[in-house]
Amino acid sequence: MLERVALHQTRLRTPGVSLDAKGVALGAKGAVLLPSLDRLVRFLSLYTAGAPLTDLLGSLTIDVVRSKLGQREILLSFSAEGGDRLDRVAELARLSGAYTFTGTSRHFVQYRDAAAPFGYDVAEITPADAAIVLYHQQFTQEYAYEKSVSLRSLLLRLEPRVAPATVAAPGPRWLCAEAGLGAALIHYFVRSRVVASVGIAEWPPASEFEPSPQRRHLFLVPDLPARMHRLMVETPGIDLYLPQGDGAAVEVGYEHPINLRACPVFGDETLALIRGGGREPLVVDKMPALGPVDAFAHVVLAQTEAGTEASRAPSPGGTGAALDAVSVPLRLAPDTDPWRNITATLVPRAELGLLRQLAYRLGRRTLETTEIAFTAEGAFLRRPQGIESLPIGAFFRSIHDAIYVSAGYAPVPAVSPEVLHRAFGSPADEVLFIHRDGRRLGVPRSAFVTLETALLDAQAWSGLQYEAIDRALARALPVVRLDATGFRPLRDVSAARPEEEGG
Amino acid sequence: MDPTGRRAEDLARHVLAPLLRGGELVPRRPVGPRLGLALGAGRTIVDDEIRETIDAARLRVARGIVAIDTLPPPSPAEWALLAALNDLLQVTNHELSGLGTRSRHDDLAVATSALIDRIPAPDTLREAVARHASFSTVLSLRRVDRHVTWWTGSETFRGQTPPPRLLAWPDVRNVRVREETVSLSDMAADTPVAEARYHEALSGFLAATPLTDIGTAARRTPAFAWSHHTVAVVSAVAGRNLAVRTLRGMTDDDGSAKRAATEALRRAAERLPDGLREATVVPFLDELEALCSQDPDAEPPGSERPASERPGSGTTSSGTTSSEISTSNALS
User: Fold this and answer.
1) pTM score of the predicted model
2) Residue of A nearest to B110 (CA)
3) Given CB atoms, is A306 within the 8 Å cutoff of chain B?
4) In 3D, which of B122, B172, B182, B102 has the Cα closest to residue B147?
């Protein structure tokens, strides 16, 4: 049984509980008794949504306690350090279905609430040798500590939930790529001039039968271009993470139930990559050394003057001279062959109106199979079955999956399309259009959307009021009802004749 | 809200809205030319419900003649026409005057004509369509007069409801009520205003909304007469198409009604100067007659050549006029 602490009361029976400056019964510690683990997560989620856990973290312990009846509950205890902190904890505990206590060592009494603004005191101490005794208005219970729960391991065990909004969140990204993809990703970033740092993280072998440790490339990209998001998210073997405070990151598309930024438990030298979809988190215990990806760019050694002279000097031994360079620029030459593979067209901006009108004439199949990308140069349209149904713009023929040249022209020298593709750097996510006027335009593949989607996106609609035909037909005819016009009805018309009045 | 705004809101609620959606139309205090012309400057109907009702009704009428998704709100000219219609109805209101003030009716009729004369012709076909959308139902306005007789007397209530005391004990007092519906063109009867003056004002009002004027050309009174408003509309190909569609819509595509309208239009055209008639009105009348001749129940025009052989008729073998296609884009 508990007694309410009265105003100006000076003595309390509960050991380790005293009155603070405001007269509230307060011990050195606060404790929150939660019936289950999910309530604990809810409590932490509520707490970290409004304030960081930093002030509690130093003294925070989470224990699984067991009553004499064998019931297991969660006891979260921390240093009280004043009533304000404990007040906030008590409010959030009430919200999450938990009880708040205060005490110092073994005996914890219920913390103040609206019924007892100065707190509670026990009427009689329970003689028990239990590790902890909790006094509440509804119960007095003894508990024994069973095991301790680490907050860090709890955070790592929690499954992140789906949050599509995080895909568009600004800021840096961590990228974890499987060993086979790392090199390709480095070159991709170098080629695309994306600023990134890279390192290799190692984990012990998954089993004793594997000889080598598991290696993954770890990238830190300060500003990942939006066009690459989809590629990174959808490519198997590459995981994209959004940093959540120091030492933690959550996979893009998911969010942790507890605000990790408010829980600095991972440290600067570690990195916990929390993955969604039921996968185990990846924890890098020691951060690998990161270096800029630019260090992997191709390097060309400049030929020294001495070397040049040496190579060009006539050799007394009669060895062959160095070959002059034979590289020539790529050109398009008119082609007399009949047109075939005409599968793309560039509609200049000036002709977009014509394209809009033409869209009304196109069949469903054409709209479904035609792709369009809007660029500053105009709209590029592709249709693998042939673009003849759109008789506007400058036509292109496909010579490679990713290369189109102006129709009626052929690239010279007549290298194979594969070689041409390699000469352009083999861009994986770009489609190249080589125009007869010399322009070489690269359009990201992700920019292409189906024509029907583009048409629909351009549409605006407005809801109209529904009106049944019979209602329209049942419309009453207007009937004039004459009414009294009041005093001086023509005062607006005035006594003046309209000639003067209107003038 | 300023007094002018209140008057405009009052007119929209009690005159324009009932005119478009039906119901009881109660004319307000006469507006006069000066206020009528100033009424619509930057005016928007404040009451959302009334505005939406009016917009929806106007759009429904406009869609009957042209593929259009929005109509601009009533223009200053439409507000002036609304004021003119209100004043025109007040001209026929016997409550306007008392003993010794009978001249008020004539004064108001003259002022209304002056107001109508000052309303400019539509600048664009869109404006013509908008005016038609607002006032297409004007000739369907009716007034119900009730003639009450009882054993010792009788009384006529023009557009008013007899007091219940007069209708009490109908059997004992031998009360009889005869209702008479009076159309807009006949409303001036039994009022101090000269009927010719009233018809002149009404004719001017109709001329100011040219598509409505052409659409109701078959009316008995006031007889249709070509005005600079109507001639301006039919002088353009797109305007002719709009006029044809209006006429077809307002005559319910009835062959005899269309022929009557065509006859009225042709009769009125004889009073136009030859050059103007040949250049503007005759092509329109030719199109109309071609349409009449295509009706399955229509009598073949005996003395006329087939419309398709007529030069400049613009009629294709499919039965639609070739110029109709471009009408919807020619509104501005």
Assistant:
1) 0.44
2) A498
3) no
4) B182
